[in-house]
Structures are given as structure tokens and as C-alpha cells.
Amino acid sequence: MQDPAPIGLSLPQLAASRCNLCWRGRRSSSFTIKPGLQTLMTLAIKEHEQHERLEKLKTLFGLPVNKAKLTSQRTRLKNQNGFHLCRLGREVYTFVSTSRMSGSLLNMFSKGTKRKFSDGDEEISDESLVGARVASSYSLQRQSLLDMSLIKLQLCHMLVEPNLCRSVLIANTVRQIQEEMTHDGSWHMVAEAFCSAGQSPSERLVATEVLCRSREQDAEPKLFSVISYEGCREEEVVADETLCSVSVSDTVSNVCLAGRIGQCWEKSELSGVERDEEALEDSRLGSGEDEEIDTKDRASTESPKTIGQVFGTFEIKNGSPGPDSALEELFSDVDTSYYDLDTMLTGMQSAPKMGPYDILDSLAPSHSSPSIVSTPNCRSDLNELDHIMEIIVGS
Amino acid sequence: MHFSTVFSLRVSLSCRAGGGGNDVQWCFSQVKGAIDDDVAEADIISTVEFNHSGELLATGDKGGRVVIFQQETENKSQPQCRSEYNVYSTFQSHEPEFDYLKSLEIEEKINKIRWLPQKNAAQFLLSTNDKTIKLWKISERDKRPEGYNLKEEDGRYRDAATITTLRVPVFRPMDLMVEASPRRVFANAHTYHINSISVNSDNETYLSADDLRINLWHLEITDRSFNIVDIKPANMEELTEVITAAEFHPHQCNTFVYSSSKGTIRLCDMRASALCDKHSKLFEEPEDPSNRSFFSEIISSISDVKFSHNGRYMMTRDYLSVKIWDLNMENRPVETYQVHEYLRSKLCSLYENDCIFDKFECCWNGNDSVVMTGSYNNFFRMLDRTQRRDVTLEASRESCKPRQVLKPRRVCAGGKRKKDEISVDSLDFNKKILHTAWHPQENIIAVATTNNLYIFQEKVN
Fold first, then answer.
1. Assuming Cys at both sites, which of A13, B34, B276, B449 could form a disulfide with B268, CB separation 3.0 to 4.6 Å?
2. Which residues form the SERTA domain (chain A) (predicted)?
3. How far apart are CA B62 and CA B110, in angstroms?
């Protein structure tokens, strides 16, 4: 049983999906909450028809149907003692790729099942020198640890206040890794990929406040931090200056602040419809949208791609104009009440702490494929996630 | 939640004062809680505490309920009988709340219960969730007045014309009724989540600690408290350390300690100044450079601190070890015990599944000779300080036979697994023992698994 290919979700998608997925049932589900199983890839599809449905959805959106992957996941899940659907806090489910280090994680949960994960070895099989192997696996480990930590930080935005101790400890770990990477010089490489020129990497040692935004009502209560991207839809966000003020903070690169996103959404929803339909058909982000970038805004790389995708999914959920009959059929029994604008807005406002999103984006190297940020698959995986969640919620 | 005794038995032993040495064997006594494996979240036990006499055992759960067990008084005719604990009172201590200002829920989970020393017939305890502390009075009623002059037994007033003689009510025995009533509610003093409460030895004040602040309360005054420690930085960006636990000294009413997420313990003297930001003593062990990793800081974070009963030592629990500190020596602990060193190589996985953030508690026995703490796979560890011995025991349904002696368990870290050993990879990290309590005088321990409470007693040959 090999480690399945990671379903990477970039943070904007997580943010978007998070909004879409917030629901109120605290003890509603038949699932036991195991906060410790946060980063397992989850697919607790219990019934065959749900699985079929998922396959259907994937086909619809042009996703590779990977029965083997699902099967292996399910099998593995069944092997785990007392496994239940994983969710982060009370709202968020996640498809976070098991990082390379976590092969042994699943060992810990399945009694007696011994798994060797050999992905790491395969990757570096080219290198003949043992020393080089060690070094690169160390940096690989470090990178995956960084990714993991950043995901953890953002995903503590639950309905209940996150555990401050945990957040601080994770933030300290991230800082420690950052410092080490700075000294190594590898930080510079990462930072360069994402930041505007003129800021030295060391300045970008992340402030705790941004990493795990405190509960204190900050001086800027109006501003949300949203992830920044290469591809963006500035028009939607920046459309109305009075509603959405966008600015870049000095302390952290690429901090993208979009104020009162709810209003932005409201406004942009209408304008975004056509674009979203297009995007839906593509099922692939990336090059198409990059070309739309407004050159003058490139430097600041503001405006979340999230919003577009949120609209995209928002679109679907409301059975928006022109859906396939197949789509309709699939979503016929989905409760769309969750996806009312109100719900989304409330969900959004309940945790205005998306500071770490931008950090992740600036820190996670785009070149390493197993990392969490994998843009090409974003949209499809986001949809997949949403649909799976619908299925599960509906069940 | 219903606590029904699954197995209860009378163990024919004589009680022994709470010493822990000399081949103490532990045997099963009782288990409380539902049998089925499907754990309802509300039933997850979140705190366990004996009262000062050991007669009462309180548990709090995630659903905001408190269940109190009472030790049956020993049968005088059979002095060999060890008494058992039965449900005494159950009440809903905290309700879930919603903070409208921040759009955040406030969990009703009981974080800590602390008993007050008994002053009269009633018992008092403090229970706290993330934001609010409540003082509960638990009182018994076993008599009621009967024979009112003007009222019937059911409460209706008698027709005045029919009253011809005077009748004075008398108290007659009734079935025992245990009432719990909230006497004080100490609210709105904490911005962050309360992690500890500790009653002062003066029996008038207590402290409550959250992630960044410690407040001092008077038990009679609910509308204000004094802030005695505040480690919140002016700029939250600089926050790197939080308070994880705090406790008053058992005899000195001016002294308290608090532990931090960086592995330091600060002892403060309230006589020195009103605000105890400046510590009187700082207990910190220098880091071992050979063990340094990305997780060093996380595993050094102290999850619990407890003074010994004699007040000379304190014990701290971090992720992998238990340390005993002499209050007079700040630069290193006097004793260090490894709880589950075999996990050191698994730290990354434990970080990923968040187990590395589990907060284990620890406790002393009555005469401070043995300490106990929990681990994974429903294991718990007894560390004998005088004999320098330690044992790992398991709280499981398999060893629930009456009077069954607990067999020591061993975990095999790697290599060849011997018979009866468990390999690290087969440990169940969902089954963790975070909360344990030791009877203040006897060798009776209460161990909380996820939703069950196990009571073990000592076996004496």
C-alpha cells in the first residue's frame, strides 16, 4: 500500500472551503471528533454509493478518478483502531497531504500494521552520496515540518477559540525553522520567490501576531488577511475602494488585507458569475488566470484568488444558472442552507484571523510538488473537498 | 451521563497508610462509565480530584457536568473490607456559552475542580471552565420537618376552622438527598482560557490562571479580583511564552508557582509586591544539547505543576518526563523520571497528529514517596522516589476481574520484541490517561481514561 499522491490544497482553498463548510451542529454528526487526527487525509465515505458519487463528481470536473487511491485510503482507515472522520475543530475538514514524515503516523494508529514508506527514498535515489541524502532528507523534513506547522496555525480557526498555548508553540517552531533556514540560505530562496524586492529575508521572521492572531481585537478590526497569490482577480476585490481597502503590511511580505470581505463577495458575486462558470469548466487554475493579472498590482500580489474560488463553489452550491443535469442530480439532496451568504459571512467573520495564510504562501516553495501549495489542483480539489463534505453532511 | 458501576467488589484488605514502597501491588477495584467503545464527546472526563479527606472523589467532564463519588464508610463488623466509591451527587456545573462580541463559543468543559477544606457539614468545591469559576455547595439533607400546624403534608394550607390543637413540627428522617447549589460565580475576569485554579492555605483566597494572567480572588467576593501576574507583552507579536499551570504553596499562603510553555517555573512571593511579574525564584534546567531538535521547545512545555504535601518539593510534568524540584535549588531538578522515552523518536508524528500538545497531569501520594502520571495506550506510570523503581500499569477492561492484580506492562522501543511487550507502533494514541488522582491518605488511585474512571487499590499480602 503506497502513500497516496497528496491532494494538495492551497490555503486560499482551505479558507474558502472553510467558509463553505462551517456548520452549526456541534454534536450533530455521528462522527467522533478526534482533534489529534487533524492532518490525516480523510475520506470517511462509508457507503458505496457515496463513493460512486464522488467518482462521478470527479469525472464531471475532469479529475482523474483514482479508485486505487480511495481504496487504499479507505483500507487504511479501516485498519485504524477507533478511526473516525477527522475534523479540525468543529468546522473544518481538510485534505492535507500526509507529509513525508508521516508515514509512520499511520502506524501509530493501526495496531500491528507495519508500513514502510519509501517515498523519501525514491525521491533521493538519484543521489549517490549518503551525506547528500541525509542533508536533503533533512531539509525535506524541515520543509515538511514547516508546511505542517503553518497549516496547523491557520486551521485553528474554529468556532471555539483556539488553544493559545498550542498556537504559540507552533509559532515558535515555525520561527525556529525560519531562523535556521535563514542561516542556511535556503530561506532566501524561498522568500525571493514570493516577495517583492527590497526586503531582506531576515526581516521576514514572522511575528507571532501574524502567525497566530491573538484574540484581542486588533487595532485593525476591519481588515482580514487573505492569502496572496500569483494569479488574482483584483477587479473583484479592488472594485470598490471604499468597501475593500487593500494594503500591504511592512512586517510581513505579501500580507493581503481585504476589508469586509463579505461585502466584497456580495458585490463580486454578481460580477463573478460568468467568470466562475468558465473557471468551473476549466477545473484547472493557473495559466489562464495568470494572464489576467493586472500588471500594476503584480508587485503587491494582492487580491485573493480565494474569492474567485469561493464564488466558484458558492456558485455551485446554489445551483446557479446553467448547471448540468448531472450536477443537479448530484446536488439535489444537498442542503444548500449552509451556503447562504449569511452563513458564509458569519463564518468568515467569526474567525478573522487568516494571517498565517499569507505566510504559508510566502514560505512554502512552489517548486516542491509534494508541498501543500499545489496550484494546478487547487480548484478541483477544493470542489472535491466541498462535495465530499456535502455528501457527508447530507448523510 | 450515567455512572453505573460495571464492576464493583469488596476487597478484603486492610487499609494502609499512604506509603508506596515495598512491593505495592495494585489491583482493580472499580470502573465507572459506559462500557461501549463509542465515546460520546460529552462524557470525556476532563478532571479528577479527591477531596482533603479522600472520602469524596469528583470528576468533571466535557459536557460541563460534575459527578461526585463517595467512599462508603467502612463496615465496622468487617474491618478487612475496603470501601468502594459510589455516586454521591451529579450536577451540571457549566453550560455552553456564546461570546457574541467575538463570535466564539465558550466550551462548558470543566477544566479543573478543586475542593475547599471542609469547615462544616457541607462540602464546597470550585469548578471552572475556560472563562468562569463557580463555587458549589454540596449539602446533604436526610431529615425533613413533618407535622406542620397549618399545612398538610402535601403543602396545602389547612382549613383554619379545623385547627383545634397546636402541633409543632418534628424532624423525621428521610432518604438522603444530596443537593448541589452554586454559591458564587466568578466571571468575566479572564480573556484567555483558564487552565488552573488553586485554593490558598488561608482558605479565603484562591488563584485562577489563564494563558497570560493570574488573578487572585476572595471566595466571598465575586465582582472583582486582583491581577497578580501578567505576562502579556505590550505587542502581541512578541508573545512566545504562555502560562500553563499555577498552584499555591500548601502551607505558605504568600507563595505560589506558575509554569510556562518554555519549561520554566517561577515562584512568586505576594509579599514582595502587588504585581508578581518579577519572580522570586526561577526554576529552569539548562537544555541538553545532544537532545536538541525542532521539538525541544514543545516537549519542554510544562503541562502540570504540583507541590508535594510537605511543601518542600514540587513536581513538573513535561511531555516526556517528570521532574522533582527542591524549592531551594533552582538550577536543576533533584530527580528526573522518563515517562515514555520511547516516544522521542516519534515526535514528528506526534506533532502531526497533535498528540505532542497533550497535557498530562501528575500527582503525589500521601507521603510524597511515589508520584504517578499517565501515558498513552491507557498506560500510567508509578514512579517510586524512595526505591528508585518505576512501573507501568494499564487501565483496561481486560483486567477488570475482581481483585485482579495489575500486571506491569513494558513497551519495546525497537529491536526484538520480547514476550508480553508492546511495540511502540502498536500503541493506541487515542487512549490517553491525562488525569489521575491519589487518595490523600490511602493507597487508592483514580485514573481517568477517555470516558471511564478506574479506581485501583493496593493489595497487601
1. B276
2. 138-185
3. 6
A290 contacts: CB under 8 Å, gap ≥ 6 = A230, A231
How far is B378 from B452, CA to CA, in rounded Å? Answer: 11
Classify burial at B167, counting beta carbons within 10 Å of its beta carbon; exposed 0-12, middle 13-18, buried 19 or more. exposed
- Report DSSP letters for B351-378, one per residue: HHTTGGG----EEE-TTSSEEEEE-BTT
Q: What is the structure's pLDDT at A214? A: 40
Beta carbons of A111 and B428 less than 8 Å apart:
yes
Choose among B244, B294, B429: nearest Cβ to A109.
Answer: B429
* Three-class secondary structure assignment of A101-166: HHHHHHHHHCCCCCCCCCHHHHHCCCCCCHHHHHHHHHHHHHHHHHHHHHHHHHCCCCCECCCHHH
What is the pLDDT confidence band of residue A54, given thresholds at 50, 70 and 90?
A: low
CA angle B380, B384, B387 (to 5 degrees): 145
Residue A124 CB: number of other CB atoms within 10 A?
A: 16
For the whole prediction, is pTM greater than 0.95? no
Cα angle A95, A97, A100; round to 5? 165
Q: Can you say whether the dihedral through the CA atoms of A214, A220, A226, A230 is positive or negative?
A: negative
Q: Which three cell numbers stand for residue A384?
A: 472535491
Q: Which residues of A touch B42 (CB under 8 A)?
A: 27
Which cell numbers in the block locate residue B319?
511531555
State whether B357 and A40 contact (CB < 8 Å).
Answer: no
Distance CA A57, CA A21 (A): 18
Quote the ipTM score: 0.89
Task: Please write the tens of the pLDDT for every residue from B305-328.
Answer: 999 999 999 999 999 999 999 999
Nearest by CB to residue B104, choosing from A161, A169, A208, is A161
Beta-bridge partners for A192: none
Cα distances (angstroms) measured from residue A347 to each of A17, A225, B191? 11, 15, 22
C-alpha cell at A98: 500526509
CA distances (Å), origin B84, targets B10, B57, B71, B161: 7, 11, 5, 54
Query: 3-state DSSP call for residue B157?
Result: strand
Residues 212-271 of A with CB under 8 A from B: 214-217, 251
Cα–chain center distance at A255 = 17
Task: Tell me the shortest Cα–Cα distance from A166 to chain B, in angstroms.
Answer: 7
All cell numbers assigned to A48: 458505496
**Quick one: CA dihedral A106, A107, A109, A110, positive or negative?**
positive
Q: What is the spatial distance between Cα A41 and Cα A370, in angstroms, rounded to a whole number?
A: 14
Residue B48 β-bridge partners: B59
Contacts of residue B416, defined as CB under 8 A and 6 or more positions apart, other chains included, come to none
> Which residue of chain B is at minimal alpha-carbon distance from A103?
B349
Please tell me if residue A395 touches chain B, with a CB cutoff of 8 Å: no
Residue B419 has pLDDT above 60, yes or no: yes
- Residue A357 contacts residue A154 (beta carbons within 8 Å): yes
B379-384/B389-394 β-pairing: antiparallel
pLDDT range class, residue A329, cuts 50, 70, 90: low
Burial class of residue A240 (count of CB atoms within 10 Å of its CB; 0-12, 13-18, 19+):
middle
| Residue B137: strand, helix, or coil | strand
How many whole angstroms separate alpha carbon A324 and alpha carbon A328? 6
Q: Which of A26, A82, A214 sits opposite B430 (nearest CB)?
A: A82
Residue A200, classified by CB atoms within 10 Å of its CB into exposed (0-12), middle (13-18) or buried (19+), is: exposed
Report pLDDT for A59: 60
Q: Which helix (H) or strand (E) holds B307?
A: strand B304-307
**CB proximity B12 to A under 8 Å:** no
pLDDT at B52: 96
